[in-house]
Amino acid sequence: MPPKQALTPNAGPPPRDVVAAIRSVSKVYSLGGHEVKALDNVSIEFRQGDYVAIMGSSGSGKSTLLNVLGCLDRPTTGQYYLAGQDVAVMDDETLSRIRGRYLGFIFQSYNLIQQLSVVENIEVPLSYQRPPMPGGRERCLKLAELVGLSKRLGHRPTELSGGQQQRVAIARALVNNPHVILADEPTGNLDTATSHEIMDLLDALNKAGRTIVMVTHENDIAERARRIVRLRDGRIESIAEVRREALPAGG
Amino acid sequence: MKFLQQLRLGFRSLLLHKLRSALAVLGILIGVTAVIWLVAMGEGVSYQAQQQIKDLGATSIIVRSIKPAEESSRSDSNARMGISYGLLREDFERIVTNVPTIGRAVPMREISREVRHREQFIDGMVIACTPDYFGMNRLKIARGRAISEIDMTSYANVVVLAHEAAVKLFPIEDPLGRAVQIGQEFYVIIGVAAERSAAAAIGGSLDARQYDRDVYIPLTTFRARIGDRVFTSRAGSFQLETVELTQITAVVDDMKEVDSTADIIRILLQRYHKVVDYAIVVPKELLEQAETMRAMFNVLLLLIAGISLLVGGIGIMNIMLATVTERTREIGIRRALGATKGEIVQQFLWETVVLSGTGGLLGVLFGFLCGPTVNAVRFGVRASLPEVWAALPPNIRNLEPRLAPWSIIAAFAISVGVGIVFGIYPARRAANMDPIEALRHE
């Protein structure tokens, strides 16, 4: 495939209000001798305050896209601008610092550290900030209050319900004041009622100006977002704006 | 602050598996305690030996008569005349006049004889010596006086008793001025020596020499009253032996000249003695030998202790590898949340250091229990197994372990070092995991 850089309209660093942008990103895995294209020339931009749901069947490349966006994986070709820097060419240590500084992660299975208490789990990303962030502990307490867990600061993850654990994870994703929050099936392990509570929390965060990119396969969850990106076979099939008035009441 | 946090985190992660961590700590604990105890006991034994040798004097050279093998003796080869061997008075004169580096020299003759006072008697060791003998052997007179030059020139029948000999012969009365019988003769007691502990034997071995049966008489008196030719009973039969001097002790002024002086004495004696019926003992050499022995001993002990620490280290590595596998997911989470590989390595290294450091600290604590433990074992053996106790050599019975500060520091440092060395591989394995794979790990 010929290089598409020249055809891309916005080569070079994106405008300032674009917090994250991938340009002509492809990701090729070699599996059992033949190559598999997990992402094929994908370009997408996320603006400050964006709320994007990424959808697609399994194998469509949505996990790979999220890994690339999360700086956990590097694209085979193409650029990824995060906070104005091309992170596609960075080494492992710099990528770790970028993750800790600019990104917040929310996982399907919460991924809290078992031996740490609620407040210590929220604090984990702060221990990897270089230079250290001032006012760490107070910030954690404030966030615990924001997600409604200020009475359970000393509890261990095993002592919390699934919804409570996900709230801790959300507080943890906010503690480093990230440019983008990446959520991978945030309600996948939760019942409907709890799912709605968690989504309400994310909606509120977005209204407060947070940029959220979320992978989901549930339509009602995806419709909470402002835009829905559909992937198929590693390509963007469609990008659709969600009409605001179509949002369900409540939240 | 950061340091304390890491320490605390390490402790808490290890507390997830209390038994497993405790076993790893135990491995290191045993290693560290072994180092400290073994070194302390080794130091105790060699300290004893050194003290005994030092009592002989580092600047002295001891020449002793030794009975040669039967056939080769310098005898008149007349069975009735018995054998004659050993150092001669001429040898003493030759050594004193020909060796300029010698400051003082003391001749001495000793013989085993019964010493009697009325019904009390002891199997005594008669030491015939000159007045210098007391000063040279640091023999203190508790009461009365030592042998004098006048006693020597007048062939006086006087005797100085060792403390224990005096106590045995005169349990109630004051021995001063009274007489004891040695052989056919009576000797007036002029002094009693102060108490003295056993020291290394003159023969060159490090067995303790007891002083408690010694009685001291003038050398001239010995020659006049007892003579050079003495009957000794050996294996039931009597034998006639002619020995002029049992021992010559020479003291050199400068410690540097001890070895060369000993060589000169050796050459001198070789010229006049056809057979080697004497032995030259240099306490300084013994001291050096003891030092070398101690160093070798310590190396050996460190080797043994090192092996036990190595085993402890392998235990730690094993546990850390299991921990890393178990906590793959945590590693993935931390990597996603911004931890670099270096920070993951650090985290797991801290855990191993907490493990091995805890083992090291506890090991040092147990190390301090070495003295009390030895005392307790000694007490137990003496109380419950008296025969075993009596059969033990005095070096063991009197063993006082001496804690060596260097061994405590070394043991602790090595234990932490072992933690780091054996922690590096598991920690690197943790750090090199692919974060995506690690996050997927169940």
Describe what this molecule looks like in 3D.
The complex is a heterodimer of chains A (about 250) and B (about 450). By secondary structure, chain A is α/β, with parallel strands linked by helices. Helix content of chain A is about 25%, strand content about 25%. In chain A, helix 4 crosses helix 5 (about 160-175) and helix 5 (about 160-175) runs parallel beside helix 6. Chain A is globular and about 50 Å long. The N and C termini of chain A lie far apart (about 45 Å). With about 450 residues, chain B is α+β, with helices and mostly antiparallel strands. In chain B, about 55% of the residues lie in helices and about 20% in strands. Chain B has helices at about 1-15, 20-55, 90-100, 130-135, 150-155, 165-170, 220-225, 260-270, 285-325, 330-335, 340-370, 370-385, 385-390, 395, 405-430, 435-440, and strands at about 60-65, 85, 100-115, 120-130, 140-145, 160, 180, 185-195, 200, 210, 215-220, 230-235, 235-240, 245-250, 280. In chain B, the strands form three sheets. Chain B has a six-stranded mixed β-barrel with strand order 3-4-11-6-8-7. A three-stranded mixed beta sheet of chain B has the order 2-13-12, with no helix packed on it. At the A-B interface, helix 2 of A face helix 1, helix 10, helix 11 and helix 16 of B.
Characteristic key phrases:
heterodimer; A: 251 residues; alpha/beta; Rossmann fold; six-stranded mixed β-sheet; four-stranded antiparallel β-sheet; 27% helix; globular; disordered N terminus; B: 442 residues; alpha+beta; 2 domains; 15 strands
> What about the largest sheet of chain B?
6 strands, mixed, barrel
Q: What proportion of the residues of chain B is helical, as a percent range?
A: 40-55%
Approximate strand percentage of chain B: 15-25%
Give unreliable regions of chain A as ranges. Answer: 1-8
User: Describe the biggest sheet of chain A?
Assistant: 6 strands, mixed
So what's the CATH class of chain A? Alpha Beta
Mean pLDDT of chain B: 85
* Count of alpha and pi helical runs of chain B: 16
Number of strands of chain B: 15
Spatial strand arrangement across the major sheet of chain A: 6-7-8-3-9-10
